[in-house]
C-alpha cells in the first residue's frame, strides 16, 4: 500500500465485501464491480464464517481480485491470511497480537484499525502497520460503531506520517470530498458499492468520480 495516487486529492478506493456472501455467485458480481473502475484493494470481511467458509471464499474471490491487479486482504485473522496466501490482513484492536502478525506477514500488507485515536495510530505505526484505518466518519448501517472520527485526524496524520491512512464508516460518493481533501489515502466502503441503487459497478464509478472531483 503506497500513499494515494488515485484521484485529484490522491485517494483510492478500498473495497470491502458484504459481511455475508455466496462465494461462487459473488464471483461475477465482484468481477463486474472491479471492471468498473479503479480499486486499490479488496478486503474479504465475512462475519461469523468458519475457517472452511473463509477458505472457500478466498479460493473463489482472490483470483478475481488478482486478475484485476487488486490486492486481496483478509479481515480479522492474520494466521489464516498467511495460511491461505492472501496479500495481507486487516486487524482490529481485538483481533490478536499486532506485533506477531507483523512478523508472520513479512512482506505482506498489515492494516490496523485505530478508531479515532492518535495514540493507537502511533502505536500501529511503530508496530509496522502498512496502513492505519480511522473511523467511523459517518453513520453506517453496515456495523454498529462506537467511535467517531473527524477530518482533523486525517490532516494530522497525513502531514506527519508517511504511512498511508484509510478512512472508513458511512462513506458515500456524496460525502467523501472532505476526506479526500483532508488527506485520506484510501476510502474504505461497503454500502456505497454493494448497496448502490444502480448496482455495484455504478457504485464504483460514482465513488471514483467523486474522488476525482474532490
Ligand atoms: C479498512 C478497515 N478499517 C477498519 C475496519 C474495522 O476493523 P475492526 O475494528 O476489527 O472491525 P471488523 O471489521 O472486524 O468488524 C476494517 N475491517 N477495515
Ligand atoms: C467495517 C467497518 N469498520 C468501521 C470502523 O469505524 O472501524 S465502520 C465499518 C463499516 C463500513 O461499511 P460502510 O462503508 O457500509 O459504512
Ligand atoms: Mg476485526
From TrEMBL:
- Pathway assigned in UniProt: Cofactor biosynthesis; thiamine diphosphate biosynthesis; thiamine phosphate from 4-amino-2-methyl-5-diphosphomethylpyrimidine and 4-methyl-5-(2-phosphoethyl)-thiazole: step 1/1
The protein's annotated catalytic reaction(s) are: 4-methyl-5-(2-phosphooxyethyl)-thiazole + 4-amino-2-methyl-5-(diphosphooxymethyl)pyrimidine + H(+) = thiamine phosphate + diphosphate; 2-[(2R,5Z)-2-carboxy-4-methylthiazol-5(2H)-ylidene]ethyl phosphate + 4-amino-2-methyl-5-(diphosphooxymethyl)pyrimidine + 2 H(+) = thiamine phosphate + CO2 + diphosphate; 2-(2-carboxy-4-methylthiazol-5-yl)ethyl phosphate + 4-amino-2-methyl-5-(diphosphooxymethyl)pyrimidine + 2 H(+) = thiamine phosphate + CO2 + diphosphate
Chain positions recorded as 4-amino-2-methyl-5-(diphosphooxymethyl)pyrimidine binding sites: 43-47, 75, 113, 143
What this protein needs as a cofactor is: Mg(2+)
Per its UniProt record, what InterPro entries does this chain match?
A: Aldolase_TIM (IPR013785), ThiamineP_synth_sf (IPR036206), ThiamineP_synth_TenI (IPR022998), TMP_synthase (IPR034291)
What Gene3D superfamilies does the record tag this protein with? Aldolase class I (3.20.20.70)
Q: What is its EC number?
A: 2.5.1.3
Residue ranges of every copy of the Thiamine phosphate synthase/TenI domain listed in the record: 13-193
Q: Which UniProt keywords apply?
A: Magnesium, Metal-binding, Thiamine biosynthesis, Transferase
Q: What does this protein do?
A: Condenses 4-methyl-5-(beta-hydroxyethyl)thiazole monophosphate (THZ-P) and 2-methyl-4-amino-5-hydroxymethyl pyrimidine pyrophosphate (HMP-PP) to form thiamine monophosphate (TMP).
Which protein family is it in? Answer: Belongs to the thiamine-phosphate synthase family.
In its UniProt entry, what is this protein called?
Answer: Thiamine-phosphate synthase
Question: Source species, please?
Answer: Roseomonas fluvialis
